[in-house]
Amino acid sequence: MKRSKTILSLAVCNVLAAPFAAQADSMTIYGSAGVAVEALDNGSRSTTEVSNNHSAFGIKGSKSLDSGLSAVYLFDMFVGLDAGGGAGDDSLLGGGRDGWVGLSGEEWGIVALGYQGRPWKTSTNHLDMFGNTIADYSAIMGNTANGYFDGGIGNSLLYFGPNINGLSWHLQYGADERDDSTNDWGAQLNYSQGPLYASLSHDWDGRGTAGDDLAATKVALSYALTDATTVTGMAESLSGDDVDSRNAYYLAASHRIANTTFKFAYAMADENDSGADTGASYYALGVSQRLASNVELYALYSALDNGANGSYGYVSAPHTSSNGNTAVTPGDDSSVFAVGLRYDFAWEK
Question: For 83, how many CA atoms within 13 A lie in the half-sphere containing its CB?
Answer without folding.
Answer: 0
